[in-house]
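Hey, I was hoping to borrow your eyes for a little while. I'm sending you its amino acid sequence along with the backbone structure tokens. Take your time with it, there's no hurry, and the full record follows here.
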Amino acid sequence: MKKTTLMLALIASIGAANAQDIGVTVDGRPVRFNGAEPTMKNNSVLVPMRAIFEELGADLKWNQARQEVTANKDGKVIRLVIGQRFADVDGKSVELTTPAVNENGSTMVPLRFVSEALGAQVRWNPNRMMVMVRTEGYQTGNNGKDDSGRAQPIRDRNNNGVDDRTEKPVKSRDAIATLFKSTVIPVKLDQELSSNESRVGDKFTASLDSTTGVYGNLPGGTKIEGRVVTAKRQDGTEPGMLELSFDRIVLPNGQSEEMSGTLIDLKDKGIKPDADGRLVATGKSKDNRGVYAGYGAGAGLIVGLLGGNTTTKGNVTKALLGGLLGLGAGELERSQSRKPSNVSLKPGAQFGVRLDEDLTLYRDR
């Protein structure tokens, strides 16, 4: 009975967290929503109207009688009517994948449409349940649009916001190493994190943990920057939860590259060393995203969730009972003394960062 109760509590807590914990960043800054949270409908992310328009720098007007939203930014005008499939962008009718809706007193608008209509770029990372909006370094004038009128990125190889076509001279960059998708980088946490003290959006770093001092051409002293995606306190029989994501790698010389990484347990049975001694996630471990769940004393257990869509109870149950809790549930079965607790990660805590995309490191010349 104890095992069943603990597993059902874990299923409920993970399901609840994933049903609502969709993160949004604008130019790398986490967007905080007061009240209503981002939600997924028909494969579209809807967000509270006022928060996203203000974050994107648009002036907002609301017509209660017509249930109409009007946003204006740099002369571009967008009109949305609650429940209608078509929106108006500068006098042109545009069909929406999902219309704006009113939920529990909050007006929710489709994030991708709103952002792209205002000249931003939108990227969805299913493993991190994160929508990343970029406005910096994107042109919104006629010279920065393609034939469909969508803003195009400037060529900014030096990541300084200046178009390479106008910046002189432009440094050339040689690729010195590539770590392929599913490579696992062993790291140690640099600062304390916990499910009851940390907040969504908090940044942290973890240092390369290699006995040889070099790992896949990564030198000792390499750090990985990350942020907290989910932080849920322990509540009764429900364990605390902590989900982390990783978005930049910094070499000892200060050089850095963007990356996309996911938490993984270094004891995961799906991690195998390759011919060069690097760890690689195989099988199901290639697609799972790791979440710390608090049980008993100590840091907690890393449980794997299948893919990026775990918002339904069926998917979460499959993730837990399909062998991914071979680590978590196995430990629970062997130790009846474990009880739900908060996750507490101390400096020096060891875990793996699984690359979700190929990572290429460059040398400037």
